[in-house]
Amino acid sequence: MTSRAFRIWSFVHKWTSLVATVFMLMLCLTGLPLIFHHEIEHLTLPELETLPEDHTAVPVQSIIDRADRNRPDEHVLYAFFDDEDPLVIVATGASPMSAPETFHYQTFDLRNGRQLQVAQPTEGFMYVMRRLHVDLFAALPGMLFLGLMGLLVMIAIVSGVVLYAPFMRKQPFATVRTQRSRRLRWLDLHNLLGIVTVVWLAVVTLTGMINTLAVPIERMWQASELAAMSASHRDRPVPEHYAAADRVTGEVRAAFPNSHLLTLAFPGTPFASPHHYGVYLVGNTPVTSRVLTPVLADAASGEITATRAMPWYAQTLFLSQPLHFGDYGGLPLKLLWTVLDLITIVVLVSGLYLWLGKRRGNKRATEEEPDYLLEDTA
User: Fold this and answer.
1) Same domain membership, residue 317 and residue 257
2) How many domains does the chain have?
3) How, if at all, do strands 87-93 and 293-298 pair?
4) Which residue ranges traverse the bilayer (predicted)?
5) Contact, 58 vs 113, CB < 8 A?
6) How many whole angstroms separate alpha carbon 158 and alpha carbon 273?
7) Mean pLDDT of 181-191
8) 342 vs 23, 185, 336, 372, CA distance in Å?
């Protein structure tokens, strides 16, 4: 590599890193609690009652009716079933097309129908962390902006690897020149930690970029796949009475005995149709438990009318979301993700320190610029 090529790569690395560093640092800090979001959320749940093994579970419809009575001016929109505890969360809103941030959530014990006093997921510390991490409280524009920052980070990663190659030819791997200036020690540490975490950071950045496309992917699926699944009922009148939720869930569980019911979307909502319930299932393996299978059930009779596998672009999104937070391998993988996240924070902060040191016109730092940055390696 010639000195000119090296300077070009150095320019690309410096400015892509600087532009994205503040946002990347924010994402690393907000991502730390989100790695353990599942554990933190379960800690906030009240302790469930111990019931005899032969107890009879209450009908899901009775729970939905109770949630409806609790919010008489709203519509029941969704029922979310917990994948670990016997809980169902019923979401209500002013209209079937209400925005998710306006939903009111009620949590019930599926075994006895007891309502649990749980804080709304749209408030509190974890909500703030999630919104900052996902969209900067700016909805779709914020998500797309963070996706652009992710692209800059990917460019910084590639250019950083290119810049580290000449240094590797002159120094043993993991060299930190402790006998030289403080700035040079930090530069070596910055390079070392950066190259150690490069694969993890690339994976997290790439999956994060995919996640920023969640809304366009969702809308694409609704406009194509979901519309095609519900097309057979398009010209029928909207039913005046809906089948009981237990009838719908019973039909689906019988047809998919090896799947777990995750979400029940009520007719008229964006994930159903005016003529159908939307039922969303996941499998029981580490991979299939992350991929949704949509099923439409006739709103009046509860009978299944359509089901199809999610398209590749939706499956890519489903698989990238848990990988982004290390949510595939249980607590050990989450702990590894935490360590790598902390190391990345050190890389980001050290990069800022090195740049600010040069900006202050530190003559000694300039004179001790690593010789490999000026080397003609052609």
Assistant:
1) yes
2) 2
3) unpaired
4) 12-36, 136-165, 186-210, 335-356
5) yes
6) 45
7) 79
8) 15, 19, 10, 28
